[in-house]
């Protein structure tokens, strides 16, 4: 059984895995999909990457972000894809460095804030986007940590105008040890290795 720090080190070192694979989506709603990916700084002990966006062969890079995973999906159900980043950073009200989820739209030349990293009820170490059968929007799925029981959970969130509301919380079995420092643990790709072991609970 691997430790989560070992998984992260391997993923960042080879530049592969869920954290760095390109995502594709129509960011501008014009029927042309952009390719979006992280352009990381190699050899860094902490995550640091630009967001690189390519459309019709033209590549644009943003300033640096403390980003360790990127996915693209229509989170707010407006017909345009958003860029969802997992960042390891502080915010205005919490000066601890911890994993936070940021949602951006694309304005052609730069990223526009949609959701700025407020903490979820439980810390998370991986995330995915999942298309809902109920509507056309993408749900955010977190690999969350239940600290009192030292257990993993799959938590599903739906965009609600100015933030996210939880729809589902399910206990998971994961093939890795529970992290000792949840605020500084990043495990891109681990969620897909976990398995549900219970019936979904009411939020």
Q: Would you write up a description of this structure?
A:
By secondary structure, this protein is mostly beta strands. The protein has one domain. It is built from one helix and 13 strands. The strands form three sheets. A five-stranded antiparallel β-sheet has the order 9-10-11-12-13, with no helix packed on it. A four-stranded antiparallel β-sheet has the order 1-2-3-4, with no helix packed on it. The longest helix is centred in the first third of the chain and has 11 residues, at 4-14. It is globular. The two termini are 31 Å apart. The relative contact order is 0.16.
Shape estimate: globular
* Distance linking N and C termini: 31 Å
The percentage helix is under 10%
Overall residue-averaged pLDDT value: 85
Number of domains: 1
Overall structural class, as computed from helix and strand content, comes to mainly beta
Number of helices: 1
Low-confidence segments, given as residue ranges, are 1-18
Number of strands: 13
Question: What percentage of the residues does DSSP assign to strands (E)?
Answer: over 45%
Tell me the Rg in angstroms.
Answer: 16 Å
Q: Biggest sheet, in brief? A: 5 strands, antiparallel
Oligomer: single chain
Run of helices and strands: HEEEEEEEEEEEEE
Strands in their spatial order, largest beta sheet = 9-10-11-12-13
